[in-house]
C-alpha cells in the first residue's frame, strides 16, 4: 500500500507541481484547498505526512497546525509547512504552531523529495 500525503494548498499551480512530484514518486496524494477542508480530510484519511501552506483561505496554516495537534489520532503525523513566508521568524512561528518541518517556496523539484523523505 502506498503512503498517503495530504497537501493543503490553495494555489492551483503549487498544488499541481507538488502532487505531480509526489505521485511520480509513488505516493497517494489527498488534496485540500482550504484550511478547514484540510483539518477535515486529515481526520478522515489519517495521512502519513501533511504538507501545509501557511497562507490559506478560511483558516490560516498556523491555525490548521494547532487544530491538527489537538486531535490525538493525528498527534504523531509530521506536518511540514511549505510556504513562501520566508522572513526572519517565519520558520519559528510554523514550528511553534505545531509543524515539524519547513520548506520554502518556490520548491526545488530536484531536492523536494529528499526534503520530504526527512519527515517520513
From TrEMBL:
Entry keyword set: Phosphoprotein, Two-component regulatory system
Keyword Phosphoprotein tagged: yes
Modified residues (4-aspartylphosphate): 53
The UniProt record lists the keyword Chloroplast: no
Protein name: Chemotaxis protein CheY
GO BP term (any one): phosphorelay signal transduction system
Chain ranges of the Response regulatory domain: 4-120
